Fold each of these.
Amino acid sequence: MKRENLHEPFSIEVIETLDVCPKSGHTHNFFELVYILSGTGTQCINNNTSRYHEGHMFLITPEDCHSFQIETTTSFFFLRFSNIYLQSNSIHTDNVQRLEFILQNANHQPGCILKNQVDKSLVHPLIEAVIREYVNRDCYNRELIQHLVNTLIVVVARNISKYMPQQVGEQTDEKALDILSYIQNNIYYPEKIRTEVISKEFGVSESYLGRYFKRQTNETMQQYVSSYRMKMIEHRLLHSDMRMGEIVTEFGFTDESHLNKFFRKNKGISPTVFRKSSRMPV
């Protein structure tokens, strides 16, 4: 299976008309946002399929296997960006943790990621503006494109964080979404995601918070926190060269032994073994 690489922080490509997709199933080491400017067909991600049409936007994360089957002539907009770009100072630091939602809350399934109707109407003119700047190449176009790209990424992060976690359904209360967002934003600070702290933050008792969270998400708060931390740590192991000591510091573990114990409990192997085995060539 072909694997593509990105050798710059981000790139833009506009393909105006395609009747047949030139690529079969493939993976890559970067994130890819695909927006359908026109046309219809089927998208495949990890052997799951979904129909697409004009106005749909898809997020393909690193290592996802994906392809398109075109039914009517399709125009695509591609925005590709690397993990390095997310971690760079190009994006305001207040948004970096929100952008982690892209990395860890995407469900690796096909289908349009824009669930918020307001954002759907926002994305189209943003992409038109990016294409216009990309084609015209006027002065300061690079700076303008970068700001527009950052806005698109944050809009996608907002949709994923509020509407796409697997444990959240259409009937989930707004307060439950706020609690999830709070946990995700503070996952690096164990003292801020204790039950007693969260209950004070949202003005409810600890006992009620536990029952409410389980009813809304079908898992306990402790299960969700552990699961989300694991996803974040796995991402560091797979897609960065961070040392174990740096991961320990970032996620508030007392030492490497504490990290190893947590990881083994959830994964059955040490983080070092996980990193080595996951990076073995196929």
Note: The chain has two domains: 2-163, 174-278.
Amino acid sequence: MRSLRHGGLQTIFALSVWAFMSFSSSVAHAAPRHIVCVESVWCRIAQDIGGESVTTQALITSQDLDPHHLHPTPSMARQLAQADAALINGATYDDWALPLSENTPLRMVATDYAPSWKEGDDPHLFFDPDTVYHFGEHFAHWLISQAPDHKAAIEARLNTFQRHYDAITQHLASLNARFHGQAIAVTEPAGERLLHRAGLHVVDQSWAHAIMNDSGVSPRETAALEGAITQKTVRFLLVNPTVTSPQIDRLVSLAQTHSVPVLRLGETLPSGLSWAEWMSTILDPIDRALSQSTP
């Protein structure tokens, strides 16, 4: 009787251990993957595709922080190292995050999905719809491999994301058809790929890159840009509010004095907006300015 009782207890104990391990495995399997991004826009894309299968943490959420010049903190290093996936822009924009995420199980860098990008180009790859599309698609495929039970839900959200991408590219195609070759001025090249996709001609590309790189602007180019504004040969002036300087302040003042529309394009996703909604808040004012101003 004693041995039977002992054997029964062993069986019960073994079954209990098996049940606990099965439950623990199920919980671990169902646990959302933790995603850390440098810029909030990549985290929002991951959240919109991943839904309940992910948690996200953006290292930069303030409109006042410029990833170009950010000095990472120990806390940022820890968050990247402890993530299941690190989503990084790359393209010299936030390259300081690359060595900090070397051992992260998955590291996605947007540059890998922008084959035409080269050193010196606009590094703000979240303004390039095709890069964003392929980035989101690859992220969805990885997440399905991690959470196969959620495959249908992830694919459904990816399809929604891709429909929103289609709406943005259709708007860009419409702008290109109606305003191709129209001249505009920018104070910094954020959004350059978006503007080129819309068919617009940036007259001060070299000047804007000099501002971004803090490499010193040419007095001749500054004079030419001021002349384009005062003579109203540009349809609007696009300003990145994150980047300020006396030269930019003067351009804005000249544009306002000569009734040249001044539009703003920041480089941080506004709180509460999806990627597609953000792009719409950029393209809609551009559409209105081009429709209302005289060439």
Note: Strands lie at 33-39, 54-60, 85-88, 106-109, 183-186, 201-202, 237-239, 262-264.
